[in-house]
Amino acid sequence: MTLQWTAVAIFLYVEIGILLLFCIPFISARRWQRIFKLGIWDKISPFWNKGFLTMIIVLIVLFLDAVREVKKYSAADPGKDPKLNPNMYDHMHMKLFRAQRNLYISGFSLFLWLVMRRVITLINQLASVQGSTAALQAQAESANQAAKKYMEDNELLKQTLADGKGDGNVTAEGNDLLKEELEKLTEELEASKEALKKSQSEVEAMKSQSAGLTKEYDRLLTEHQELQNQMESGDKKDD
To answer: What's the rounded Cα separation, in Å, for the pair 106 and 91?
Structure first.
């Protein structure tokens, strides 16, 4: 086996090993997804598509070459009677066997390469669906619990309204608390009203005081003007 076909055979064995790993039942799809999200794959991802297409092209070329070889040695006629030329007959069959072997190796390698790409995609999709399903299931369980609680509360309320008993003490306590709160708010409102009245009376007192001061200022100003006029008239008489 030449070097290129040895490499293709090794590549085929690696593909088979990887697909067998994917078939292991105790490794879940979400665990494979966590493996695919490792940092090393982020570094390889820019070259992944180019490498994938390059490998497909190489395998297709090798597959077509193997097909050509099979046709070549299948159409060859080493002689009508193999007993007359046994060495040539065996040599042609050996060439045909190698060509067929290379055809199977390259064909299965190409097929498993495409299958492996598809399997990885399906594993990622399955892991995403499982994650969303788990989240939806948790939401559904919480919604069911809330619905059960509301139904129980509704039934309890119906029984309380029907019997007039049951939680009467709790209702009475609630009413007492509401009454106390109402009385407290009423007291605070009365206190606010009194404070407002007091403030208004203080404002009125300040207004009246201000008015008195204004009148007194006007009176003093008038007297000052009269005294000033008298002084000016007295000075004129002296002159």
So the answer is: 23
Q: What is the pLDDT confidence band of residue 13, given thresholds at 50, 70 and 90?
A: very high
* Alpha helical stretches, state H, the chain: 3-22, 29-36, 39-75, 86-163, 168-238
By residue range, what is the domain housing residue 8? 3-137
pLDDT 10s digits, 122-160: 888 888 887 777 777 777 777 777 777 767 766 776 676
Q: Give me the sign of the Cα torsion angle 51, 56, 60, 66.
A: positive
Contacts of 85 (CB under 8 A, 6+ apart): 78, 79
Whether residues 99 and 39 share a domain: the answer is: yes
Alpha carbon distance 217, 209 (integer Å): 12
Instruction: Please count the structural domains in the chain.
Output: 2
